[in-house]
Amino acid sequence: IANSVYYNAVLTLSILNKLCVTTEVFNLWFHLLQQVKKSGLRANFKREHDKKVCCLGLTSLLALPGEQFPGEALERVFKATLDLLVVYKDQVTVAANEEEVEDDDMDGFQTDDEEDANASDKEMGVDAEDEDEADNIRLQKLAAQAKAFRPTDDDDDDSDDDFSDDEELQSPIDEVDPFVFFVDTVKALQASDPIRFQNLTQTLDFHFQALANSVAQHAEQRRAEIEKEKMEKASAMAAPS
Q: For residues 40 and 147, what is the distance between their CA atoms, to the nearest angstrom?
């Protein structure tokens, strides 16, 4: 449903209304979004991609006109989107930090062992193919040891880390930043219907006001990072080979 809403919110709501299941579908969606395990982790939509799709779908609902999306629903969706954006941001940050640590660990592992291994291989006459096979065996042993020391919990045996996204998986939303998309959508709402926007902001308590400010700041940071990445990519393509 999140994908459908993102690509065409008006058509999706029209179909749900014709089937008389709009309330049922959205109540279920919000229930799944709010459901957590004993550890406090989300029970559903565990992958970064799943959270991103939900963020984009929820944000798309904010752009609907008042006659199609009443104020009560707007408030509920706005708050749910803020909550989910923060969770998504935290998961992306943790994944990036872990990837950086893993890269550092692998660099250290290679630096410490390569000289001794190369010297030993030369003495024993080990060729490159045998060396690669030995490296693979060592990595498999390290992975097995790490898995053996991983703590387990019968009730919460799967964390968000276990649902990392496939780096090779591509989708049309890869280039869409959910934070920038959210802020741009809210700005469009403010410009097109200032009274509706004012009524929405008046329903926000201090907690959600703080979340909104945090998301807005992060969106501007992401906007700058995206622009920098585009410039670097353009420079790389323009550079002579």
A: 23
Determine contact, residues 44/33, Cβ cutoff 8 Å. yes
Q: Rounded to an integer, what distance in angstroms lies between the CA atom of residue 36 and that of residue 108?
A: 38
* Rounded Cα distance, 194 and 202, in Å: 12
Contact (CB, 8 A) for 218 and 181: no
Q: Is the CB of residue 63 less than 8 Å from the CB of residue 9? A: yes
Tokens in use for 144?
Answer: 């097995």
In a 10 Å sphere around its CB, with 0-12 CB exposed, 13-18 middle and 19+ buried, how is residue 241 labelled?
A: exposed
Using one digit for the tens of pLDDT, what is the confidence trace for 35-86? Answer: 989 988 889 999 999 999 999 999 999 999 999 999 999 999 999 999 999 9
CA distance 141 to 224: 42
Q: Are 158 and 46 in contact (CB under 8 A)?
A: yes
Query: Which residues lie below 8 Å from residue 185, measured CB to CB, with a gap of 6+?
Result: 59, 60, 62, 63
**Alpha helices (H) along the chain:** 2-7, 9-19, 22-34, 48-62, 71-124, 128-148, 178-192, 194-202, 206-238
Q: How far apart are CA 145 and CA 141, in angstroms?
A: 6
Tokens of 123: 């003495």
